[in-house]
Amino acid sequence: MEKELEKCLMCKKPLCEVCPAGTPICRVIGLVRDGKIDEAGEVLFDNNPLTAITGAVCPNHLFCKGGCVLGRKRVAVDFACIEAEVSRRYLQNANAANNVFARSTCDEAIPTHKNVLVVGSGPAGIALAYYLNKVGFNVTVCEREEKFGGMLRYGIPDFRLDKSLIDKVIERVKSVGVTFKANCPIDLKNLPSEFDIVVLAIGAGISRSLGIEGEELTVPALEYLKNPKRGENVIVIGAGNVAIDCTLTAAELGAESVNLCYRRDETAMKAYPEELEHARSKGVVFNYFMVPKKVTHDGVTFDKQGEEIFMPADKVIVAIGQGAVDLDMCGEYNFECTQNGLVKAEEFKTNKPNVYALGDAVTGTSTIVQVIGHAKQLAEMLSK
Asked: d(Cα 77, Cα 75) in Å, to the nearest integer?
């Protein structure tokens, strides 16, 4: 961290502050340089309650690091390194009993006496709950799983994120007044009537279908990441960062071979170039112009530009994107959905009165900081 702090030029008009979550980078660096680490941590957390997590997994090459003026000299400040270290220290201190830094602007909020139900405890749900609590709403977060975190816990491999950070974040958000309930599935057909506002922060956890013979023999990407199991010869079908996470997980589990198969070429892949190089360094083989046609117990038949190719595998993982809800259920829920299974929401408003939606459930898979930015916008809108 010290090395990164020394690099910063403290620009008067910083180009690095393009974070969708609005992270005040120069202010934080100034506080840390002055030895005010706990205060810097409080600034980070108050701006973004998931700052310890974004510091660990945010694609900062797109945002803060990508905007740094020193990037032209290839010595851009890696703010994520500073953010992660400062935020970890803050959570440790703030969660300690009777610590002087365990305070929040939430204490100064004027109660609205409105009750809000947030469905889902992923990044969208956690961030929104914190921001709404800050402005005086009574917030309850319901999570259908037994542990909180949503995609943070079940969609990000352990080697990328220390999951204990999620528990520390939840503990801190609980301490300022937000109620969290686990094992609490919400029936979207009959939403609870005791809440003035309901917000769907359900993410995009429904894997899209290949629509080919033998697909029942495959494993959806999110199911695999939630409960990864070893395979000797693994095929991952897809081209995004989730697909790359699946290949890296398979490699970490000791697969003999890991093949990523994509229907187009590398220039069309959505995964970040850095992630592709990381996968290659772990032995993942990339196969392009591979269109899956049939899955059997011993592998996949592909069409490669008119040529039929069979690739053996004992585990086939499908990572071609996710929706928020099962399309067949949209009508039953009385929600308007897109053809990709996302919830239609105009300025966060669904077609149901007093029901809102945000995050990946509306936009499809995005970055955590973008979701946090959406949560800020919605909280501001509801507070008016």
From this structure: 6
